[in-house]
Amino acid sequence: MKTITKIATVALCACFGIGMFAGCQQEGGPGPSKDDGPSGENGEVVVWGGAEDQTLLKQIVKEFKVANPDVKETIRVEIQDAWDAQSVVSKDPEAAADVILIPHDQVGLMAKAGLLSEIRDGTAATFATDIKTNNDPATVQQATYNGKLYGFPLTMDTYIMYYTTGIFNDELPGMDAFLSSVDKMLAADMPNIPGSKEKATAFGFNIGDGFYLNMGFFAMGCTLFGEDGTDVNACNWNNENGLKFMQYAAKNFRQSGGKFKSDDAKNLATAVLNNRLGACISGGWEMQDTFKGAKNIKYRTLPSITVDGEEKPLVAFSNSKQYVINNASQHKGTASRLAAFITNEQNQLRYATERGYYPANKNVQQNPAVRDDPFFQVIRAQLDKSVPVPVIPEISRYWEAAKSLGSSVYNDSLKGDDASLRSALDKFVSDLKSTL
């Protein structure tokens, strides 16, 4: 945003003749707002991206300018973590970027608050149609709130299990079954940490983060906001199956147990890399971050927990990253064209091959560079078994409540008796139903 010159007169929507990226929109769509001047007027369009993606994003922006010579606004790339975007925009929409990268669970909250511009087809642009036609149906659903489309899907995310062959040598007989079981890993006799008399820890995930806490509840058949994640009054984590997972967690996922470690996902990944931790659950992004080029690291879909003698595979959350248009933007036409360009098929392939992100685009998913890649195959397999983070605004209530519940198990502040566990679950469910 941050327009240099503001045009006082209302400009008619001008068709730029750039095919699908043309800025003309139907009334109410993401075309130029009443404050847009003609493309020749001075102005600035700002796009946000993560620090680690700046090189690629800046190159894509340069290519956009070459491909769209009629765009006269200056385009600037700024660093902004996607996870914090909603809170930053909500504080001052006018000062925020025009083109904003967010995880999809922020779509509903931002749309309800009027912060996002609806994406529609226009007279010469097919933004909405292209999004729905070209992208994985899950990401289209995640871009939609109350029947309206708000996001240009870019990537799909979930988490998997990483392990170090320095502790869990998968070439030994029986290791496939071993690595498929949380219980077997926690029961293993662990070696010393290299150069230390301290024993390595067996297994870990961030139980104090709602992005991971859900795994055990979903494994037991519990749901969050109903089967499809849209019922604000539906959370059954305090039923008998939810209690069984809490009993399991109270027995196996306490810090005092010595075999389990809860920490920030990146810290856990670093511990696995350094042979201090046998296995951890973390996001696909660790392969282009902590584990890049590591020879002792392997990965697989999530393991199972054993409850009542039955193996219950842990079930991941999944989400997608989406570029959205700031409703306060004075350059919605150019912003929409830019978002469409960043997330097009060619550039999603680059995000996959250069940055290691699983693409939202269906054609890119079938590109041999993605389809035949062993890492992406594991990500795809886990995505197929995952539950998308709900889009509804009420998901914002979940994170703090989940943090409190999971942390209380790990730090031993929650007693392990059934009465205490039931009470904690009842409070958790009650907190989710509080007024937004």
Written description of the protein model:
The chain is of the alpha/beta class and 436 residues long. The chain has two domains: 19-156 and 320-388, D-Maltodextrin-Binding Protein, domain 2, CATH 3.40.190.10; 158-318 and 391-432, 3-Layer(aba) Sandwich (D-Maltodextrin-Binding Protein, domain 2), CATH 3.40.190.10. The protein is built from 17 helices and 15 strands. β4 and β5 form a beta hairpin.
In short:
This protein has two domains: 19-156 and 320-388, 3-Layer(aba) Sandwich (D-Maltodextrin-Binding Protein, domain 2); 158-318 and 391-432, Periplasmic binding protein-like II (D-Maltodextrin-Binding Protein, domain 2), CATH 3.40.190.
Task: Indicate the topology.
Blueprint: E1 44-49, H1 54-67, E2 74-79, H2 85-91, E3 99-103, H3 107-112, H4 127-134, H5 137-142, E4 144-145, E5 148-149, E6 151-164, H6 175-179, H7 182-186, E7 201-204, H8 210-219, H9 240-252, E8 260-261, H10 265-273, E9 277-283, E10 297-300, E11 304-307, E12 310-313, E13 317-325, H11 332-342, H12 345-355, E14 358-359, H13 362-365, H14 368-371, H15 374-384, E15 387-388, H16 398-410, H17 418-432
Parallel strand pairs: 1-2, 7-8, 7-9, 13-15
Antiparallel strand pairs: 3-13, 4-5, 6-9, 6-10, 6-13, 6-14, 11-12
Helix pairs in contact: 8-16, 9-17, 16-17
What would the CATH topology of the largest domain be?
D-Maltodextrin-Binding Protein, domain 2
Quick one: biggest sheet? 9 strands, mixed
Q: What is the CA-atom radius of gyration, in angstroms?
A: 23 Å
Number of helices: 17
Domain module tally: 2
- The pLDDT mean sits at 90
Q: Which regions contain 5 or more consecutive residues with pLDDT less than 50?
A: 2-40
CATH architecture field of the largest domain: 3-Layer(aba) Sandwich
Query: In what range is the share of β-strand residues?
Result: 15-25%
Residue share in helix:
25-40%
For the record, what CATH class of the largest domain applies?
Alpha Beta
Tell me the number of strands: 15
* Structural class based on helices, strands and sheet pairing: alpha/beta
CATH level-four homologous superfamily name of the largest domain:
Periplasmic binding protein-like II
Taken from the alpha-carbon principal axes, the silhouette is globular
State the separation between the terminal residues, measured CA to CA.
Answer: 29 Å
